[in-house]
Design brief:
Layout: H1 6-10, E1 18-19, E2 26-27, H2 28-38, E3 53-55, E4 58-60, E5 79-81, E6 89-90, E7 104-106, E8 114-115, E9 128-130, E10 138-139, E11 152-154, E12 162-163, E13 176-178, E14 203-205, H3 216-221, H4 224-227, E15 230-231, E16 237-238, H5 241-252, H6 256-259, E17 266-268, E18 276-277, E19 296-300, E20 305-307, E21 318-322, E22 328-329, E23 338-340, E24 346-348, E25 357-364, E26 369-379, H7 392-412, E27 464-465, E28 471-472
Length: 508
């Protein structure tokens, strides 16, 4: 407490003079100093409580065998240490007056089992709250809602099994939340999903709890600077490949939550008697997990995509992108198809095939630098729009299939060329040809006409086979072979497959 001025002690300002009766003059200034020293310390803001040590605005009541918060508390208190006592309940009236200067409250190792939802109404400027190593079993609704300026909250080594999703409402400045060594089976990770509930949170300790499964997709979508301080080791997690890929990516990115506790990141397999290391699942039966590629983005021609610079550094001083062609994108807004956004992401508009490749994000932090790589795959066809073009390979395949179908229709669905399908003045086809007949014959067909027969199906049985393996309705004996070069020429069969293009003999 600041030293008191004589004006404060006597209510008036006296520099010189004397007090007392006539003939008994006494020096006034030494008397006022004696009265000031004998006055209770901190009369304006409260004296130091018994069994506590006070130093300026710090009150240390640790290991004082206290069962309740001592009273009265000086109003100028900024740091209050009540650790290692027996304060089992923190009611709403533990601070009878408003402690506007209090910014750190330490209540660890007290056997604390109850905290009122109005317990922090008198300390609105609290920034550091330590409730670790107690017997808290649940975080009730809106428990910390009055602490709008809270930055660090320690709740580790308790018996917490239930966490209400509204318990951390209005904690817009919270940076570190320690919940390790509890009995939490499910933590509302949706508080981190969009970043609006706890926008400043940079560390979340959920180690040594009872978590059996994790929403890996939601965790992977978190920014890298938060995943760098998301501690999940010491939980009885069930092994699966998405969990392995999440941890493997953290190791590849050198995230502290994975690198520092790599041996304690374990999971349970149904076939294993003891937990196994999550990183040991690579190629191990029965899961046989493999690492996923890091930062691979697929797009189509004409699309607009945004490449995120997922850095684990906070307080970035500067950053820029380098395209696959070696071009540096430095300025926000940019020109052409590449533009640097305000959050550090790179936006590519109207994608072209030459935009595919590996992009590098160079980040300069206050202590170290980091380089991130994003691979962009551009498919050579568009995906949206009424006039989209088709993939060339797909078009070729469809064309081949249609060609085969047309050929089959042409071969097997050609109209029947039997006698009933021709005109009345056309003579029937001769039936004395054999399979050895020539496709092109120089001799016209002069066989005698035979009586017409009704049209029969091609599948009907026949005694002789026609040209190209077709059956003929009535085979006739072959004429005796003749000698000479012209004896081998046969009369063409207009009803055969070889003459399907014309019914008139072709003379060579």
């Amino acid at each position: 407490p600041r030293p008191q001025h004589p004006r404060d002690a006597m209510g008036q300002s006296v520099a010189t003079g004397s007090v007392g009766g006539p003939g008994a003059p006494l020096p006034l200034l030494p008397l006022l100093l004696v009265l000031a020293l004998l006055a209770p310390r901190g009369s304006a803001g409260g004296s130091c409580p018994p069994r506590c040590v006070c130093a300026s605005n710090i009150l240390s009541c640790s290991q004082a065998v206290l069962s309740s918060v001592p009273a009265p508390l000086p109003r100028f208190t900024a740091v209050l240490d009540l650790s290692h006592n027996n304060v089992s309940r923190l009611r709403a009236d533990w601070a009878p007056g408003r402690l506007a200067h209090l910014h750190a409250l330490l209540l660890s190792h007290n056997g604390l089992s109850f905290v009122s939802t109005e317990a922090f109404a008198h300390v609105p400027h609290l920034r550091h709250l330590d409730l670790s190593s107690n017997r808290l079993r649940a975080l009730e609704e809106n428990l910390f809602s009055d602490l709008a300026e809270l930055e660090v909250l320690l709740l580790y080594n308790n018996e917490i099994s239930a966490v209400d999703r509204t318990a951390f409402d209005n904690l817009s400045r919270l940076r570190k939340l320690y919940l390790g060594q509890n009995r939490i089976a499910r933590f509302p990770l949706e508080l981190l999903r969009d970043g609006s509930r706890l926008p400043q949170l940079a560390l979340l300790d959920l180690s040594a709890n009872r978590l059996r499964s994790l929403p890996v997709g939601e965790l992977q979508a978190l920014p890298a600077w938060l995943r760098d301080r998301l501690y999940l080791h010491g939980n009885p997690l069930a092994c699966d490949c998405p969990l392995f890929q999440l941890v493997a990516r953290g190791r590849r990115r050198r995230l502290s939550a994975v690198v520092d506790f790599q041996e304690e990141l374990r999971c349970s397999l149904p076939t294993a008697p003891a937990p196994v290391g999550i990183l040991a699942l690579a190629g191990r039966q029965p899961l046989n997990c493999s690492e996923a590629r890091e930062a691979v983005l697929e797009a189509h021609l004409g699309d607009t995509v945004t490449l995120s610079c997922d850095t684990r550094l906070r307080g970035v001083r500067s950053q820029h992108w380098v395209t696959p062609g070696g071009e540096r994108v430095l300025e926000e807004g940019g020109n052409g198809s590449a533009a640097l956004l305000a959050n550090g992401s790179l936006q590519l508009r109207a994608l072209r095939p030459e935009d595919a490749g590996t992009y590098a994000c160079w980040v300069a932090g206050p202590l170290l630098n980091e380089t991130l790589y994003v691979e962009l795959l551009v498919h050579n066809f568009t995906l949206h729009g009424p006039h989209d073009t088709l993939n060339t390979a797909y078009t070729t395949l469809v064309g081949c299939i249609l060609s085969v179908v047309l050929v089959l229709i042409y071969l097997y669905l050609t109209p029947c060329r039997c006698c009933c399908c021709r005109g009345a003045d056309k003579p029937p086809a001769p039936r004395d040809d054999s399979i050895n007949s020539s496709v092109l014959s120089a001799t016209p067909n002069h066989a005698a006409a035979v009586p017409r027969e009704p049209c029969r199906s091609r599948s009907a049985s026949a005694t002789g086979s026609g040209q190209n393996g077709r059956f003929k309705v009535g085979g006739t004996p072959q004429p005796p072979p003749r000698h000479g070069p012209k004896a081998q020429r046969k009369v063409s069969d207009p009803d055969s497959v070889s003459s399907v293009f014309s019914d008139t003999p072709i003379v060579v």
